[in-house]
Amino acid sequence: MMKLTTLEEHIIHAQNKFPGATGDLSQLLRDIALAAKIISREVNKAGITNILGLDGASNVHGESVKKLDLFANEQLQSALGRSNITCMVISEENEGVVRLSDESGKYIVYMDPLDGSSNIDISATIGSIFSIYIRPESKEPLREVDALQPGTKQVAAGYVLYGSSTVMAYTTGMGVQLFTLDPSIGEFILSEEDVRIPETGNIYSTDEGSYIYWDEALKKYVKYCQAFDTETNRPYKARYIGCMAADVHRTLLEGGIFMYPDSSKYPNGKLRLMYECNPLSYIIEQAGGVSTNGSSRIMEIQPKEIHECTPIYIGSKKNVEKLEEFFLA
Fold first, then answer.
1. Which of 14-18, 87-91, 103-107, 214-218 has the lowest mean pLDDT?
2. Contact 295, 313 (CB under 8 A)
């Protein structure tokens, strides 16, 4: 019989490789996994429990908030506050930082509790994204500026997808691990270890409905993707789910490129640097891919505010390099 490895076992095994490890980061990952199981359960019976639809409120970005958004936000914050190792949480659903009751915790967590909210009511894939930083050493009281760290300072990041199955991916800087939730035993089981993204792929993913607002260089690149050329396996296939975590997950496994550009409509892009772009960039880079805003590596951007937006082009190394040729032309 094939030996199954649970998320718990995998985390402990990784922790044991470092004799001085305190186990705090391991506990934090387990807390997030527990919240993900609860969210997955509610997603799977959302229509029955009347948790679909709008809440009536708007979040800090002016977007309509769904009931399930609030539920996921509450579950993740509750899980992170349970073990007193997280001092501060920054969520897409909260205007400012959330200081947990025990501010002595050493970790700062960014999260998008439910990515792809527009997919909720049609039963399409949605996800949760998280990014973990260490609180800077300081004698000063906890401040919002402590959370403004570049993505290179992440100690862990990951996402959970709620689709045909519930999948969790995470990295602590030692490769990307994939787990699938087995609902019969309530455990995340290791499904793929040390995932590597293909060096090139024939899929491009973007919201082409916004084509009219794009820069000319990006328009030319998309036309390149659509042109016929047997040597480069073009035309490429267009795929777009409307949930960044899901689109990047497909890109991770099958190769290609995901793009959410700046435009005349959104001059700074629309996706959030700290709890969407940085964590997914960490995942892709750990798998051998590339992530850029068109001129700079995403994870080297020094954030100026917690809800900052950025354009992003992320995926297989050769696909992103080809896109950059169009920007430099």
1. 14-18
2. no
Which tokens belong to 242? 């409307």
CB-based burial label for 101 (10 Å; 0-12, 13-18, 19+)? exposed
Q: Among 152, 138, 98, 142, which Cα is nearest to 297's?
A: 152
| Nearest by Cα to 192 from 218, 165, 212 | 165
Whole-model pTM: value is 0.92
How far, in Å, CA of 17 to CA of 27, rounded?
16
Give, in degrees to the nearest 5, the angle at Cα 38 between 34 and 39. Answer: 115
- Per the structure block, which two tokens stand in for 149? 């760290």
Residues 260, 271: contact at Cβ < 8 Å?
yes
Q: Which helix (H) or strand (E) holds 317?
A: helix 317-328
Angle between helix axes 7-15 and 24-44 (nearest 10 degrees) is 170
